[in-house]
Amino acid sequence: MADLLTVDQFAQMLDMHPRTIRRYIRDNQLKATKVGGEWRIRKEDAEMFMGSKLEEIRSEAVEDVQAFIDGKDSEVDGRLQVCTVLDCYVEPAEAAKISEAIMGFMNQPDPTRGKAKFQYFFDDEDKKGRYIIWGNPSFVGKVLSAVGASVPQQH
After folding, report:
1. Other CB atoms within 10 Å distance of the CB of residue 121
2. In a designed cystine with 18, which of 2, 11, 45, 125 is the match (CB 3.0 to 4.6 A)?
3. Could you tell me if 131 and 97 are in contact, meaning their C-beta atoms sit under 8 angstroms apart?
4. Do residues 74 and 38 lie in contact, with contact meaning Cβ atoms separated by under 8 Å?
């Protein structure tokens, strides 16, 4: 089951509402299978879908980061807020694993985390995973430290 995503997991990855993902499934824009009455999306199908929506996702990500820079429409709360863009020049499979690890942090019940937001896409042209993470500095720092420790550095 590790190769299957729920609608909620995939929606969170794309910063979309689960109803939007279900609509894509219903409209045959995204392949999915029912498992135990719930839709499941294979990682390969998710990556294909994200690739077809890459320009739209990239544009929305740029708008979200610019809104944060401009001090508008922050979905993150608290006195201290941070938005970071992390580029990982890795193969698609490793990029997806990094995304899963970040999603693990996003889904952990942690009252000190506060509101946080995450977007991910893989850019085939530049061969990189791009991760945009919003949240309080402690949470974002924890996520970045975990990613940094898990991805070998090339010199």
Report:
1. 25
2. 11
3. no
4. no
Comparing CA positions, the residue from 18, 92, 106, 90 lying closest to residue 48 is: 92
Distance, in Å, from the CA atom of 77 to the CA atom of 24, rounded to the nearest integer, reads 30
SS3 102: helix
Containing 85, the helix (H) or strand (E) segment is strand 82-88
120: domain CATH number is 3.30.310
Are 104 and 141 in a shared domain? yes
Indicate the length of the chain as a whole number: 155
How does pLDDT run across 12-63, given as a tens digit for each residue? 777 678 888 898 899 888 999 998 889 999 988 888 887 766 677 677 777 7
Domain of residue 107 covers 55-155
